């Protein structure tokens, strides 16, 4: 089996960085490299009109902290609290030669600006005969576990994965976050870049120099021959923990992190299933029309004869995200549920 995980070819230094710091560094490096890169969103610089710091926030999660003092308010633009205005302005700016990175804060707010995304930005290239470029990156947070309630905690990546003309990126670690963010900014098509809230303080070794990771190349975070586990975003860490636990019993798992869900590295998933004959998919989205359902369909269609057990999905239930901490913890796919699914396909 070929491990397609792309590693940065850097001759420089590396250091431990958080997921948040890695994205921040990517923004700094691309804004220094290319003067057409701008950042816009609610409180991405902060402090305007106050007696305090002129760089008070850096967004609600601090990802854009420090950008405004270096690049100024002409390139780090605080916007009104209007998602339609943010994405509409960013899409227009992309058509005129800029490379905007627009922050939606919470991806749950996509409903307010959905027309600007799916009916405008995603279709510009096609509607104008391939002559229009739309180098737009839309950053947004996703996922439960942050005690933010039903309107701030959804995993809505299946919604945008469905839309032709968009690229959808979901890094699970700081290394991938930096390389994929730089690739997204340099891309000439609209890119949805989804950051799971609970990953912001996770750390790993990240090169200090700029580097890119190609879209559509999955990473094998664990390698094995008994069961294939495909996990999305923050669920990769839970899948890895389960794989490490089961390895002590002699059960070896292939854990695949797609990294980008559109384009999706179908080839790597099929290649793994051809070896293991068993597939478990872990997706924090609601089960109906989820990425787990999509991958299940692809494997059933293209690799059915390799399966030795039914495909199992570990997803959130088909309900809104609960606010109760106890219920929220049960709502998110747990390591126990992932482990049970692996054992079930082994026993099938």
Summarize the structure.
The protein is 34% helix and 20% strand. It has 348 residues and is an alpha/beta fold. It is globular, with a radius of gyration of 20 Å.
Question: What do these coordinates show?
Answer:
The structure is a single chain. This protein has helices at 19-33, 67-71, 83-95, 114-120, 124-127, 157-161, 174-186, 235-247, 266-276, 291-302, 325-331, 335-347; strands at 14-18, 37-41, 76-78, 99-106, 137-142, 167-169, 191-196, 203-207, 219-222, 227-231, 253-257, 260-262, 279-286, 312-316. The chain is an alpha/beta fold and 348 residues long. The strands form 3 sheets. A 7-stranded mixed beta sheet has the order 3-2-4-5-7-6-12, sandwiched between helices. Helix 7 links the parallel strand 6 (167-169) and strand 7 (191-196). The longest helix is centred in the first third of the chain and has 15 residues, at 19-33. The chain is globular, with a radius of gyration of 20 Å.
Order of helices and strands: EHEHEHEHHEHEHEEEEHEEHEHEHH
Stretches where pLDDT is under 50 for at least 5 consecutive residues are none
Strand content: 15-25%
- Give a short account of the largest sheet: 7 strands, mixed
Instruction: Specify the overall morphology.
Output: globular
Identify the notable features of this structure and list them briefly.
348 residues, alpha/beta, seven-stranded mixed sheet, five-stranded mixed sheet, 12 helices, 14 strands
Please write out the topology.
Layout: E1 14-18, H1 19-33, E2 37-41, H2 67-71, E3 76-78, H3 83-95, E4 99-106, H4 114-120, H5 124-127, E5 137-142, H6 157-161, E6 167-169, H7 174-186, E7 191-196, E8 203-207, E9 219-222, E10 227-231, H8 235-247, E11 253-257, E12 260-262, H9 266-276, E13 279-286, H10 291-302, E14 312-316, H11 325-331, H12 335-347
Parallel strand pairs: 2-3, 2-4, 4-5, 5-7, 6-7, 10-11, 10-13, 13-14
Antiparallel strand pairs: 1-8, 6-12, 9-11
